[in-house]
Amino acid sequence: MTNELAHQFVSDTSVSSQEFRTLRNNLSLQTSRHDVSVLLITSATAGEGKSYVAANLAASFAVEGKRTLLVEGNLHRPILAAVFDLQPNKGLSSLVGADAASVKADDLITETKIQKLAVAPAGESLADPATLLAGSAFKAFLDQVKDKFDVVLIDGPAMADASEAGLIAELANGVVVVAKADGPSKRDVAQTIAQVRQLPAALIGTVLNQA
């Protein structure tokens, strides 16, 4: 998967790269209007390609020259370590436990092979990811990285599958909803959008994923 994603990033002539550049530019405009510093990428249900969108979008921002951080928010189904060929035991899981308060943001972040793109993967498996996401250490981590990076994207869980999406949305200030072209019904997507509108974070946009 790493090579497949990398090729999509570096090929300036591919349709996929052009589409993500357009998406990046549109989101940049919206995030500027809403003063968004942390953007949650979610979907109505699992399997709609939100991680694919989040990873490619993060790479597109980095290629543009923006210092970009992609944070793993889907701790039930972590994928970023595999996508970017990172050590699976290093990551956000360090924010749980007696030493969580002393953990620095830089300890959880790994640079990728894509210049200006860093990732904060899940790390070790957690029995209850909500404990991490609801904790003060995770909030402090996001506060730190907002000052270090131009763009912070969170690859979050689906809204219908995990209460954790709501916890992350409380800390992010912008949300993008991804919907697969042949995925959930329009009603499911509409319900998800309505759910997001009840959250403090601004709904920045929706993305139709045809991949």
Strand order of the largest sheet: 3-4-2-5-1-6-7
Q: Mind summarizing the main beta sheet?
A: 7 strands, mixed
Q: Percent helix among the residues?
A: 40-55%
Our estimate of the beta-strand percent is 15-25%
CATH topology tier name: Rossmann fold
Number of strands: 7
Nearest-angstrom radius of gyration? 16 Å
Structure, described:
The protein is α/β, with parallel strands linked by helices and 211 residues long. The protein has a single domain, classed as 3-Layer(aba) Sandwich (Rossmann fold). The chain is 42% helix and 18% strand. It contains 9 helices and 7 strands. It has helices at residues 2-10, 15-34, 50-63, 80-83, 105-108, 129-133, 136-148, 164-171, 186-197; strands at residues 38-43, 68-72, 110-111, 117-120, 151-155, 174-180, 202-209. The chain has a 7-stranded mixed β-sheet with strand order 3-4-2-5-1-6-7, sandwiched between helices. Helix 1 (2-10) crosses helix 3 (50-63) and helix 2 packs across helix 3 (50-63). The longest helix has 20 residues, at 15-34. Residues 6-11 have low confidence and may be disordered.
